[in-house]
Write a structure and sequence with these properties.
This protein has 2 helices and 2 strands, in the order ββαα. It has a two-stranded antiparallel ribbon. The chain is 63% helix and 5% strand. It binds zinc ion.
């Protein structure tokens, strides 16, 4: 049995993730606590990521290149439609 340092519960070794364990040292946190922490970390980072993307899209040169891409896409669609018709 190992004790989780986060929730303080005594749990069997199977409740502790093994990949994080290096030789000799015992895992500190149980799987529950690790998955909870990872979920929180992901939520935090996702917010950071979307914020960065929003700022990136606001840049004028990015906006223009997106427009170019749309034009290109439309043009390609037209080409495809033409080849399908023949
Ligand atoms: Zn725990």
């Amino acid at each position: 049995m190992n004790q989780c340092r986060k929730c303080g519960q005594l749990k069997p070794a199977s409740e502790f993730s093994r990949h994080a364990v290096s030789k000799g040292s015992r895992p500190k946190y149980c799987k529950d606590c690790i998955s909870k922490r990872e979920k929180l970390w992901r939520i935090k980072n996702f917010a950071k990521y979307t914020e960065a993307m929003r700022a990136y899209r606001k840049r004028p040169e990015v906006h223009e290149s997106r427009m170019d891409y749309q034009r290109l896409y439309r043009w390609r669609k037209q080409l495809e439609a033409r080849t399908d018709g023949s």
